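Fold it.
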Amino acid sequence: MRLLVNRVNLLLCQYTAQVRPSAGMATGSQFHKLATAAKTVETTGVQQDLDTDNKKSMAATITQRHSPLTDSFGRHHTYLRISLTERCNLRCDYCMPAEGVPLQPKSQLLTTEEVLRLARIFVEQGVRKIRLTGGEPTVRRDIVEVVGQLKALPQLEHVGITTNGLVLTRLLLPLQRAGLDSLNISLDTLRKDRFEKITRRKGWERVIAGIDLAIQLGYRPKVNCVLMRNFNEDEICDFVEFTRERPVDVRFIEYMPFSGNKWHTERLISYSETKQIIRERWPEFQALPNGPNDTSKAYAVPGFAGQLGFITSMTEHFCGTCNRLRLTADGNIKVCLFGNKEFSLRDAMRSEDCTEQQLVELIGSAVQRKKRQHAGIGGNRILLHHPHHRQQHLQQLRNCSSLTHINAQGKAQMVDVADKAQSTRIASAEATVQVGERLTTLIAANELAKGDVLSVAQLAGIMGAKQTSQLIPLCHNIALSSVRVQATLLEAEQCVRLVATVRCHGQTGVEMEALTAVTVAALTVYDMCKAVSHDIAINNVRLLSKSGGKRDYQRQ
């Protein structure tokens, strides 16, 4: 517009100079020419602006389509949630046991520098909003510095935090100075005694004070409340009343009724049921407009300072517009909250030969595997709007398999090992590759064109063990403390014998890692020798021993 105004002004001056008579007055025809010319300039300028906007829009669309953050269903992911820690200063009874949960060694977690590096890479690829989560992110001593450094990323538009609010009265002002844009506060009850029962800690007054401080500092905080039957459904109207004088956004989150292999559908309060309870007291309760990527359905009571929202993860999923990715504290990228599949960016980043471009490609590979909805749950999503649906669903649960790797709906799933004791786990496996006389001679003399067969096979086996969870769908991503692969040429038998021994200190065994190690090593031997002969046989891939778990094993 500024350019348009300048053009019109210039044209006015030119015409005024050309047509001004001695008396200083322009004729009617001259004014007509002036108006026509000005209109032409305006139309041309607007058309040029529209053309420029269209070109920018088309360029942005093309860029998004080819971005590693765009999945196979065309969803472009611009929102990254980063878990800064596994630790929490509460012990909510629906989240963890009173004594807490086992934590990973610090060496397995991302350092501050690694968090910031990955954040920069995601932003350079198109992320525009980052939310810091946990655990409880405010237990990090450097939380203020992390926010400040994230805000320094040129293309990042928004940095938020999700917190239990216990230390907001102490930290919020420094966080605001560092550039914090928004905050979500988790609060499942407005009753002090119930808060202490749920969280097994004191501090309800501090959380409320933190919410009020946020309002005073100019924020419009979101208060996240997980609704559960026979737990806090009697406070639904209390939370609505909480928005009368406070400009807050209370968001009711549907309880996700699954834990391990067990479903607890009886505790779920659906969106429609909650809405009905509110409207019995406030009939004028009405819907508000929502953004294209909003997970919350917005509502308000007319005249109230705040508003309500419903996050309907279970009864009305919003997968089709999901633009969120998650980075766990130990450096795994999760493309769906409901999914077990994770890709370790930490391991890749800590590998000496991994370039930044390869990190981007790994991120893109993970995004491409994102399912259309709820990590493949699809049509088996819970539908509880009608009692018939509830009864039908419960009948399906009773008929489902009780196998450990099958969930209540008959879908494959990982075993939950959270309750298992940690111990030192060791496993060994072997494989043999029958190569024949000619290849035996070439391997012994190290004369194969592709190089040292035994050394490369050893290296491949180690790499294979570390990638087991990426190759075997239901294997856990285990922090391995040691992988040893021995590759021995047995000239008399004309074969290569491969033995792998894997060790970890954890809650599940490592026999799959040992078996993967020897299998990948054996395939590498084949690959390096196939140019000479295809008469190669991989034999006796088998477990030799395992220890440290419930059932030890030793091959006789």
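The CA atoms of residues 439 and 529 lie 7 Å apart.
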